[in-house]
Amino acid sequence: MDEFLQQVLSGIAAGGIYASLALALVLIYNAMGLVNFAQGEMAMFATFLAFTLIGHGISYWIALPVTIAIAFIGGIVIQRIVIRPVERAPVLTLVIVTLGLATLINGLAGFFFGYLPRSFPSPFSVQTVDILGAAASWQDLGVMAVSGVVLVLVFFMLQRTSVGLAMRAAAHNPEASRLLGIRVSWMLALGWGLASAVGAVSGIMVAPILYLEPNMMQTVIIYAFAAAVLGGIESPLGAVIGGLIVGVTVNLAGTYLPGVGGDLQLAVAFAIIIAVLVIRPNGLLGRRAMRRA
Amino acid sequence: MRFVGRAPRRYWLIALGVIVFAGLPTQVTSFQSLEWAEVLIFAIVIMGLNLLIGYSGQISLGHGAFMAVGAYTTAILVHRYHVEYLVTIPIAGLLTGLVGFFLGIPALRLSPLYLALATFALAVITPSLIKRPENLTQGTQGILLPPQQPPDWASSTFAAVTGGPAMTSDQWLYYLCFIAAIILFWVAWNVVRRRPGRALMAIRDGEVAAAASGVNVAGYKTLAFGLSAFYAGVAGALYALATGFVSPDTFPVSLSFQLLVGAVIGGLGSIAGPLFGGIFTFWLPIISSQFVQTQDWIPDQVASVFKNAGPAVTYGALLILIMIFAPNGLAGLILSAYARLRSRLRGVGERTSGQLPPDPQTV
Q: A251-273, pLDDT tens digit by residue?
């Protein structure tokens, strides 16, 4: 039982990371009906920036917000330069462009930082603390806390501020929003910035667990896809719930199912994606897609 | 003779292309013909991908994984069950097509995004999945296949035509890929120009309208995906035979990206595009890394990094630039250049009658 609880706890910690990245995906999906395949790579690049800052002797707790700020600006810049020219193109074009972006950022990271895996510092100790008989590491608890704070902040911003309201309005009904004086295109850019910032947090949180290298997020993004699909791809709350479920499920499957250890845990995420598509295509919290066909 | 004289100009181009590719092994070394065999293999997968993306408006990021299915089908059948290798090629294609068909059923009911997600996840997990059934796939070790010797008739014909030595196994493999490419391009040509192709393009350009016109939307989409996977399976089988070795690392995620880049660069929704795409995606990494190595002013360290990161940077940048500035790829650029040239030659009056590339917004 203790081991079970322990696996659930570390599953929740991993789930928090997936939830952040899934939330980033949902933010962009809501803004422009697009799954951003470059989200993971953007987060990876931001993590490398944080790594460089920390390597220059800057303390972790200063490097973290600075990186998030850079990621925010970077997201806006990417939207302005790369996405804006194809903003109105069909979704297929957009998907290909974000894939190109993913490849480009991956290559640039390899170019600037190399392909050697590096260990990323963690501010949390690996020592454990006793919770209900299970030994939880401070590392896991810290990740949970940071992800939790970020998620709450994003919700607060989207639901309780006028900028958040404008962003939601621009995503929901661009024409009407434009008539009301909302600068829709800039709201999209803001969405990209926000998504990029949230994604950066997930990268920085996951880096101490995995090793930091250009392909680090390739697995994490699959879990985030599974989380977003499971939660309902347009629901921010769904992304968080989906992330937690995916984190716990994958962890438990890896522990208790024979043969599902190590790299095959990823297959669990794939199975979740397929199962959701078959059983409940709109996810747990998604609205039923309006299709006229 | 009048028939020949009246043949549309593109038939001449096709005939020229076929002759060039048929004669290629007589002009290059045996090793180079193996490289060109891989170009043709790339062209075949990209043709399948193009049927899917360019004509039916769906997207797959998992064609590398489908190639893996085809390649391993052939490798296992030849290595373990000693099946005649020529027979394994259609088997590999059909099996891969079936896999695609069944994967397509859940994913295709929704927007193309879901298919992209599912196939992307498939591409990422494929190397791990291959490693597991170790007695079948030999795990990370991979499967080594013997080179396939050409049959006597081919060998002696080749020697008689070139007046040189007999055909090597590499050259035989090249011709195998060449024949497969011709058949599959011919099939694709017919598919897109007949009922299924019109149905697919109708779906691509407006699902609701297509459904209202009596097109079985789900059926045709799944069919397109299955056909596309079939192409990838055949190409995978040929790849296994050509390189003589398959391992989980032969089919990384980046392969699927590379194929997508090929489809986009060659030109979506074009029959000739995949050939350009195959040539481009195969040679770009090789030529660029060779070029960098010959440049003395580039420090060794940068050159070695470039060898790893260069293709990704170039591919990524090209994908973005082409989608923004030339959504119809190389084939589209060539067509519009030709149209412009012809209208220039024939005078201003006919400028509007030049053949325009298809509407970029439909892809």
A: 888 888 777 767 778 888 888 88
CB atoms within 10 A of CB B32: 15
pTM: 0.84
Please name the residues between 135 and 154 in chain A that touch chain B, using a CB distance below 8 Å: none
Best mutation target among B59, B200, B261, B320 (most A Cβ atoms within 10 Å) is: B320
**Closest to B257 (Cβ–Cβ): which among A103, A263, A269?**
A103
Hey, of B58, B108, B120, which one would you mutate to test binding to chain A, going by the most A CBs within 10 A of its CB? B120
Of all residues in chain B, what percent are helix, strand and coil, respectively (each to 5)?
80, 0, 20
ipTM attached to this prediction = 0.83
Chain A residues in contact with B323 by the CB 8 A cut-off are: 86, 89, 93, 96-97, 100
Token pair belonging to A236:
């921010």
What is residue A281's three-state secondary structure? coil
Distance CA B96, CA B228 (A): 9
A235 touches chain B (CB under 8 A): no
Model pLDDT for residues B91-127, shown as the tens digit of each residue = 989 999 999 888 878 777 767 788 888 888 888 888 8
Taking the C-alpha atoms of residue A127 and residue A9, their distance in angstroms, rounded to an integer, is 15
Lookup: tokens for B182: 């011709």
Instruction: Please tell me if residue A18 touches chain B, with a CB cutoff of 8 Å.
Output: no
Query: Chain B contact for A270, CB < 8 A?
Result: yes
For residue A201, give how far its alpha carbon lies from the nearest alpha carbon of chain B (Å).
Answer: 23
**C-alpha closest to that of B186 among B90, B47, B52, B329:** B47
Is the domain covering A2-279 a CATH 1.10.3470 domain?
yes
Closest CA–CA distance from residue A152 to any residue of chain B (Å): 27
* Tokens standing for residue A288: 């039923």
User: Could you tell me which of A256, A236, A254 has the C-alpha nearest to residue A246?
Assistant: A254
8 Å CB contact between B231 and B41: no
Q: List Cβ neighbours of B357 (8 Å cut-off, separation of 6 or more).
A: B328, B332, B335, B336
CA distances from B98 to B69, B244, B351 (A): 11, 25, 47
For residue B142, the SS3 value is: coil
Look at the block and give the residue holding tokens 């719930």: A241
Give the span between the Cα atoms of A139 and A147, in whole angstroms. 12
Cβ of A110 and B308 within 8 Å?
yes
Rounded to whole angstroms, the maximal C-alpha distance in chain B is: 70
Strands A128-131 and A134-137 come out as: antiparallel
Query: Domain map of chain A by residue range?
Result: 2-279
How close B121 comes to chain A (CA, Å)?
6
**Chain B neighbors of A91, CB-CB under 8 A:** 111-113
